[in-house]
Amino acid sequence: MFHTLAVPVIAAPMAGGASTPELAAAVSDAGGLGFLAAGYVTVEQLAEKIKRTRELTSAPFGVNLFVPGTRPTADISSYVRRVTQCADKVGAVPGDPRWDDDNYGAKLELVLALRVPVVSFTFGLPDADDVQRFKAAGTTVVVTVTTPSEARQAQQVGADVLCVQGSDAGGHRGTFTDDGISPGGGELYGTLAALRLVQGAVDLPVIATGGLVHGADVAAVLAAGAVAAQLGTAFLGCPEAGTAAPQREALREGARRTALTRAFSGRPARGLVNRFLIEHTPHAPAAYPNVHHLTRPVRATGELEVMSLWAGTTYPLATAEPAGEVVRRLNEELLDAVNSLARRFSRG
User: Fold this and answer.
1) Is the pLDDT score of 100 beyond 80?
2) Which helix or strand (DSSP H or E) is residue 245 part of?
3) Region 249-254: what's the mean pLDDT?
4) Other Cβ atoms closer than 10 A to 218
5) Interatomic CA distance for residues 253 and 240, integer angstroms
6) What is the maximum span of the chain, computed from C-alpha positions, in angstroms?
7) Which one is predicted more confidently, 146 or 348?
């Protein structure tokens, strides 16, 4: 599947609104592979997004599913009080800090029934029987991993491809288990280090993701053995993306640093530093998705200093071009990097 892409570039699934049918279709039409995010939408909304994407393109695309974890055991009562105080200041009412599975089972059955060409799983492992059902339906199965141990587990359940996420990636870490202590929920590896370590642990095709915004970055991970590069932040400024206006402006300014935090969702994620992140990161419990539901009304106010501004470390280098132009530019930069190296090493 990924070896046949005209451009070895994948638009990462970005839950929360950034990923849209228009963005997925534009990337796929340009020779890459677009993705829809199933997280945080209803089954009916996901069905409509898949339908709309198919109306916009005849090219393959993928859908990403969040694998539900176990119910967190952390006491979050003190954090609820902190968020309530913050909510009062911005005129919001905190959400119900509940656990749910994001309708995982129903979404899985929908994607299976609609025979979406590619399905990817994040935050954990799909059931091995479900993997085989997808394969029987002709769907390529991708599992996001962050460590060699996770890669071995994904291989055991029958994954076709691994998406190896480095620590520079924006948005949520794809770790299977959050240790609740370290900033990233566990061991942090840069993208190239993670790629090489995973390749040393398993014999599966790998996609690389994390901090990739330029065609030379794509060339680097291909040279390191990846079959494709997955980029998220690089597409946040595209007109087809559903990125909120305040976040677009913050990305364009490029003045904020990024940091890992559990403050917005209860799971480690990288975003632009704002007041909410600074004030609440030291107190945020490892309690996903409870914290996500708790803070959602606060984030929905659109106030920049309380929004989750997901972005990777290299976000200042991203552009605001149409998605198709981003894919074409990445391909040109990729070829330039490859040709430059070829010229350098062909000199007698």
Assistant:
1) yes
2) helix 245-253
3) 97
4) 26
5) 20
6) 70
7) 146
The fraction of the chain above a pLDDT of 90, given in percent, is 98
Strands 140-145 and 118-122: parallel
Q: Which of 206, 211, 71 is nearest to 144 (CA)?
A: 206
Q: Measure the CA angle with vertex 304, ends 288 and 167; round to 5°.
A: 50
Query: How far is it, in rounded angstroms, from Cα 150 to Cα 235?
Result: 27
Helix (H, G, I), strand (E, B) or coil at 182: coil
The residue whose two tokens read 């898949």 is 50
Q: Please, what sign has the CA dihedral across residues 267, 268, 271, 276?
A: positive
What amino acid occupies position 107?
K
Question: Per-residue DSSP letters for 107-128?
Answer: HHHHHHHTT-SEEEEESSPPPH
Give me the amino acid identity at 24. A
Which 3 state secondary structure label does DSSP give 337?
Answer: helix
Q: What is the pLDDT of residues 254-309, one digit of tens each?
A: 999 999 999 999 999 999 999 999 999 999 999 999 999 999 999 999 999 999 99
Residues making up the chain, counted from first to last: 348
Strands 161-165 and 140-145: parallel
Query: In sequence order, what are the residues at sequence separation of 6 or more whose Cβ sits closer than 8 angstroms to the Cβ of residue 343?
Result: none
Query: Is the model's pLDDT at 347 over the cut of 80?
Result: no
DSSP secondary structure code for residue 315 in this structure: G
At 56-79, the pLDDT tens digits run 999 999 999 999 999 999 999 999
Residues 6+ apart with CB under 8 A from 236: 14, 18, 243, 247, 248, 251, 311, 315, 318
SS3 197: helix
216: phi then psi, degrees, rounded to nearest 5: -65, -30
Phi, psi dihedrals of residue 269, rounded to the nearest 5°: -150, 150
Within 10 angstroms of residue 98's Cβ, the number of other Cβ atoms is 11
Cβ 8 vs Cβ 228: under 8 Å: yes
> What pLDDT is recorded for position 180?
95
